[in-house]
Specification:
Two copies of one chain form a homodimer.
Chain A (H helix, E strand, L loop, with lengths): L2 H10 L6 E3 L6 E4 L5 E10 L11 H19 L2 E12 L7 H18 L3 E10 L4 E9 L16 E5 L9 H4 L4 H9 L5 E4 L4 H12 L2 E4 L8 H10 L3 H7 L6 E5 L1 H10 L6 E8 L3 E4 L5 E3 L8
Parallel strand pairs in A: 4-5, 9-12
Antiparallel strand pairs in A: 1-2, 3-6, 4-6, 7-10, 7-11, 8-10, 9-11, 12-13
Helix pairs in contact in A: 1-3, 2-3, 2-5, 7-8
Chain lengths: 306, 306
């Protein structure tokens, strides 16, 4: 990492007693006492695939690079603890210098990291003649609580989703709030039988959950919560808001299953302040169906990341 | 990650009981019982900066991306436990398909990971129109043993180095063996007062160790172990083998300090089967000097990674 950036980060990042060795040595060393597990995820985003550097404030890009990783920890029901960041910076960014770009990316990450009590423990900074890419690896722990996995759904469970779906391209794919608190509560209180986050679109991600749980789903299409952005986008695309909610990528909401009793309570009360909606039922078999098995079959379309 | 690649990796990677949840869920979950700390490092390499994809077997590139991270764990004295890998793959690689390239990169990593009992716990695979980049994040633990840091050297300590230095560009920057066992032994047996790995060149990295330890070093230039590759390279560059040993990057040997008694024993016996050479003495003050403080001052030149 460049000395100027290390200096800047050292003066910006709030010291955390859990970070025993931080920036400036060969590796970071975190206190991991009283934790029996390590949950790890890594996600990389790049210019012209996941964002357009010429158009977007680098702070929003930096924020997104962290938020998508926190969303994966959320999908496991893990507490977020720390991240490391690798930057691959263009030597001639569209605005400002390479160092300014790096600084702005971190300025976008730091408030989100603080919001989720997540230590930025270190990183690697490189410049090259190619476009911007950011790789973040996040660490958490489930501790005593069972991790949320995709494979635990049972026939008769209801299918649930946090928040609203669709239209993330209008801005929420940068500014969404990762559902870390919601996932953690699902795990701690043993509420979900299976869970994942929606990154590639409801239908496509649901098909993955169904495959791991070896089940089919019957969707209650009118119940699916469509976002205001999905409606706004539908005005220009000729699709319906529901179609956007079914297939748009990067909602980063939680998709999960629960017993009917638990589902009823979550729908009534929400979870950690976030709305929960029941959108279908899990049954034996395979595929995603509208109304009933053997009725209209929905293809697992979605936004496939390159 | 692409389904074909997940399938290939699932059938290739040896199951490890410590990996409780692996490829195919939102994050990996590792058993971390009986470990009190988490050592984390991340290092990214990219085409045309760290290697030339048109010229080099992707297996060597994949191996390097892992080896440089293991070297950072070695520099902390940590046991290597697991890694995650983010690939940014060109849509049109110079040879074969994108999937073949990804597979070959992993084929280069897997034997090295097995050699160091390191789990490949997951990753993210992306393709784009830019060049190849590989980001690896490695996790380990020091456990009961104190971590090796750069700041612990004392006046009167000797400066030591494993192996031979210089000329890595001729091949060893791909094929070097990360000094994980050596670093671990330094840590477990409390042999080193400070340590780091040499990634940017002896003089430049030494200057960093000296800064963190707030000391000067007097180098015994004739004692510095120059590699056969440094001699071979000197034939064409007009520099001396010693100049290559002092300033070439990517040796990935360990540079460390120890009391004179410990140093004498390590020089006589080696460590974990690797030769150790004493190359200087730590003294109060600042700077790197040949022969004595106030004599010839050596500038901390080296190979600065972009």
């Amino acid at each position: 990492m460049e000395p100027e950036l290390i200096q800047h980060l050292r003066s910006t990042l709030v010291g955390n007693p859990r970070l025993r060795i931080g920036l400036g040595d060969d590796a970071a060393l975190l206190d991991w006492r009283d934790r029996d597990d390590l949950v790890v995820t890594t996600d990389l985003i790049s210019d012209q695939v996941d964002f357009l550097l010429v158009e977007v404030d680098p702070r929003r890009i930096g924020r997104k690079s962290l938020a998508i990783n926190l969303s994966d920890l959320a999908a496991m029901g893990a507490e977020s603890i720390a991240v490391v960041v690798s930057l691959l910076l263009p030597r001639n960014p569209p605005h400002g210098t390479t160092l300014q770009l790096a600084t702005q990316l971190y300025e976008g990450m730091i408030p989100l990291a603080e919001q989720f009590d997540c230590i930025i423990a270190g990183g690697d900074t490189n410049s090259w003649n190619g476009p911007l890419a950011i790789s973040v690896t996040a660490f958490g722990a489930c501790g005593e609580a069972p991790p949320l996995v995709r494979s635990g759904a049972k026939p008769g469970d209801l299918l649930l989703v946090t928040g609203q779906l669709g239209g993330s391209i209008l801005g929420s794919h940068f500014d969404f709030t990762p559902r870390v608190h919601e996932g953690r509560k699902l795990s701690l209180d043993r509420l979900a039988t299976a869970a994942m986050d929606i990154s590639d679109g409801l239908l496509l991600d649901l098909s993955r959950l169904l495959k791991e749980s070896d089940l089919a789903a019957i969707l209650d299409l009118p119940a699916i919560p469509t976002s205001a952005a999905a409606a706004q986008l539908a005005d220009t695309t000729g699709k319906t808001p529901l179609e956007h909610a079914l297939a748009d990528g990067e909602d980063f909401e939680l998709l999960f299953t629960a017993s009917p009793e638990t589902a009823a309570r979550l729908v009534a009360e929400g979870i950690a302040g976030t709305a929960v909606t029941a959108i279908g039922t899990l049954v034996a078999g395979e595929g995603i169906w509208a109304d009933h098995v053997g009725g209209r079959r929905l293809q697992p379309q979605g936004f496939l990341h390159a």
